[in-house]
Amino acid sequence: MDLKQISKDTTKTLVSYMTYQALRVVIAQLDETEPKRAYWLRQFSHRNSIQDSEAYLQALFYEEQRLAFRLLTVREYIAEEIADYLPEILRSGIQQANLQQRTQQLERMTQIDPTASDTHPEQEFTSGEEAGNG
């Protein structure tokens, strides 16, 4: 297990997610102040995938530098605001999700299968012994 690589991959995913959240904030702001630019940004986002946020931002810088800088600012603000809480939220979220998965699996494992035969293994064994003795 390469924890360093996992950390890098996780960071890249978080950066892309922060960019996505920043995009949502900027679009919401533009909807109120500049609806035409909000529409343009939505159309741009349909043409350019935000999954790779750095490539998305490079394309945005090429077409609309002011909006790209705005996204950078909002993304950085979001990251700064949640950075202190994120590790604990992540740990507790994983623990809670794991507990729910384990609980559900335990419930499934302990339920009686309604399609199973009505005879119990002990009854079959007893019947077989009686047939062999007779």
Can you walk me through this structure?
- The chain is elongated, with a radius of gyration of 28 Å.
- It is an all-alpha fold and about 130 residues long.
- The mean pLDDT is about 85.
- The protein has one domain: Non-ribosomal Peptide Synthetase Peptidyl Carrier Protein, Chain A (Orthogonal Bundle), CATH 1.10.1200.210.
- The protein has helices at about 5-35, 35-45, 55-65, 65-80, 85-110, 120-134.
- α1 runs antiparallel to α2 (about 35-45), α1 (about 5-35) packs across α4 and α3 packs antiparallel against α4 (about 65-80).
Average pLDDT metric: 87
> H/E series, N to C?
HHHHHH
- Estimate the global geometry from the Cα principal axes: elongated
Low-confidence stretches: none
Overall radius of gyration: 28 Å
Give me the CATH fold name.
Non-ribosomal Peptide Synthetase Peptidyl Carrier Protein, Chain A
Which features characterize this protein?
elongated; single chain; mainly alpha; 6 helices; Non-ribosomal Peptide Synthetase Peptidyl Carrier Protein, Chain A; 134 residues
Set out the fold topology.
Blueprint: H1 3-33, H2 35-47, H3 53-63, H4 65-82, H5 86-110, H6 121-133
Helix pairs in contact: 1-2, 1-4, 3-4
In short:
The chain is an all-alpha fold and 134 residues long. Helix content is 83%, strand content 0%. The protein has a single domain, classed as Orthogonal Bundle (Non-ribosomal Peptide Synthetase Peptidyl Carrier Protein, Chain A).
